TrEMBL record:
The keyword Ion transport does not apply. GO terms for molecular function: dipeptidyl-peptidase activity; serine-type exopeptidase activity. Residues 1-19 form the signal peptide. SUPFAM superfamilies: alpha/beta-Hydrolases. Keywords: Glycoprotein, Hydrolase, Protease, Signal. Belongs to the peptidase S28 family. This is Uncharacterized protein. Pfam families: Peptidase_S28 (PF05577). The keyword Ion transport does not apply. One of its GO terms (biological process) is proteolysis. InterPro entries: AB_hydrolase_fold (IPR029058), Peptidase_S28 (IPR008758), Ser_carbopepase_S28_SKS (IPR042269). The lineage of its organism: Eukaryota, Fungi, Fungi incertae sedis, Zoopagomycota, Kickxellomycotina.
Length: 476
């Protein structure tokens, strides 16, 4: 696979990457804390004229490393990096099993890894998927050829690299194996979002199937119908009473609908265990037949707000997509993710269109017109409306076809299942022994890469065991 020539940039990496003193032959002499930050120099644009350097943050866990062991590389994707990614997930157990070093590298424009001084549209034009993947590839090249440049403990030259991640980061993991097979030996892609579409109403259909399994799906459908009846009525008094019922701030009907959808989407990711489905406790238990569906829905929302300690201001931000027009400050993960949706692939979580004949689990006011108009307002007129999701899939989904050594896991009740390697309608990619796709019974989003617990579903335990065995085969 051809890539642009970057030898001049690579030379700069070797000169500017953080160097560490040798600790001799005793690898256990000084195991650094997994929460210690290190920094790696990257150019703003790997493929253009802006070669200005910036520092990318990474963390390591060398506790289990032994010579000959692999490097397990992770990224948190669309969130800031924390030590969870080096010592709080299943990959730490995998490192112990395989004598691996774990390194978690922050994604550009998230957390403290900022190529530019702000998040304006002009700055975010450098936020491309090709640049993000090349960041990780550049790090791997140095980690394999000159490990002392990036690691504070002795690491064997030319160590094999296994990339792992969940959700969007799971897709990054798969793309790294597909685009850089010479650098990445294998990929564990948990709940990887690989099939993007302009209108991601399958998100709600997956969520709805989970609710149907638990027995409250129809109640949620009826509550949403009641909410829409009020929001679309134009009756200010009724709308005000609805806001009072939900104990939420005064918003426009559309922003109110968006806020409720945001809350439900957050709770759709609640994990399942051997004894408890947390979506039962956080949503369906409120629909016990003692109140109307609308009142039960309001009670559920009040419970979500109380448990999470949401403030009135944070609730406003959930529903108001106009926020951030003029706020270009760094550290806004939501703004960067919004840019990806506007400029890369869409994948907007909208209400299921009536034309599909499928049930609706969120207000019909949450449609493309809720999201898209703000793209140009936030990031400039160069943003294409609508984004070309088909071209994105043609390139990036197409890249994954026929690639070996990728382990895809899909939760049966994952709300992102409409975008995974195995949707409700069938396989998006071939299920082969070279790159198997494993459906995790009763699991939700990326449960297989969380730390092991006694209450884990048997299917989650099995998914981890399969992944462990595959990784051990790859690194041999």
């Amino acid at each position: 696979m051809m890539r642009p020539i970057i030898s001049f940039v690579f030379t700069a990496f070797l000169a500017t990457a953080k160097c560490f003193p040798s600790s001799g032959d005793d690898a256990s002499a000084a195991i650094p804390s997994s929460s210690t930050s290190y920094w790696f120099s990257q150019p703003v644009d790997h493929f253009g004229l802006n070669n200005d350097p910036w520092k990318q943050q990474y963390l390591i866990n060398a506790t289990f490393y032994k010579p000959g062991g692999p490097i397990i590389m992770l990224t948190p994707g669309e969130t800031p990096i924390t030590s969870y990614y080096t010592d709080g997930s299943h990959f730490s157990s995998l490192a112990q099993l395989t004598n691996a070093l774990v390194v978690a590298v922050e994604h550009r424009f998230y957390g403290n890894s900022n190529p530019m001084p702000d998040l304006s549209g002009e700055s975010l034009k450098y936020h491309t998927l090709d640049n993000a993947l090349e960041d990780f590839a550049a790090f791997i090249r140095v980690a394999q050829s000159n490990p002392s440049q990036v690691f504070p403990v002795p690491i064997q030259v030319n160590s094999k690299v296994v990339f792992g991640g969940g959700s969007y980061a799971g897709a990054v993991s798969a793309w790294m194996r597909a685009k850089y097979p010479d650098l990445v030996t294998g990929s564990w892609a948990s709940s990887a979002i690989i099939k993007y579409q302009l209108e991601n109403y399958p998100f709600d259909q997956s969520w709805g199937k989970h609710l149907e399994v638990l027995g409250c799906g129809q109640d949620v459908i009826e509550a949403v119908k009641d909410i829409d009846g009020i929001l679309l009525s134009g009756n200010d008094t009724a709308i005000s009473e609805l806001q009072t019922k939900f104990n939420i701030p005064a918003l426009t009907p559309r922003d109110l609908a968006g806020m409720l959808a945001y809350l439900i989407a957050a709770y759709a990711q609640a994990p399942s265990s051997k004894y408890t489905d947390y979506t039962q406790a956080t949503v369906c238990d409120y629909f016990d037949g003692t109140m109307s569906p609308l009142d039960s829905y309001a009670k559920a929302v009040n419970g979500m707000v109380s448990v999470n300690g949401y403030t009135q201001d944070s609730l406003v931000q959930m529903g108001d997509t106009s926020l951030g027009y003029d706020n270009y400050a760094l550290g806004q993960s939501g703004r960067v993710w919004y840019y990806q949706e506007c400029a890369w692939y869409g994948n907007w979580q909208i209400a299921t269109p009536r034309s599909t004949g499928l049930p609706r689990y969120r207000s019909q006011l949450v449609d493309l017109t809720y999201y898209q108009p703000n793209c140009q307002n936030k990031f400039g007129k160069n943003i294409q409306i609508p984004v070309d999701s088909e071209s994105f899939n043609k390139k990036w989904l197409g890249m994954l076809r026929g690639v070996s050594n990728i382990y895809y896991t899909v939760g049966e009740l994952d709300q992102w299942r409409g975008t995974n390697a195995l949707t409700w309608n069938g396989y998006v990619l071939p299920n082969t022994t070279q790159s198997p796709i494993f459906l995790i019974d009763k699991a939700t989003h990326s449960q297989d890469i969380t730390s092991a617990r006694d209450t884990d579903l048997d299917s989650v335990v099995l998914a981890r065991a399969i992944g462990n065995n595959l990784v051990m085969q790859w690194i041999k």
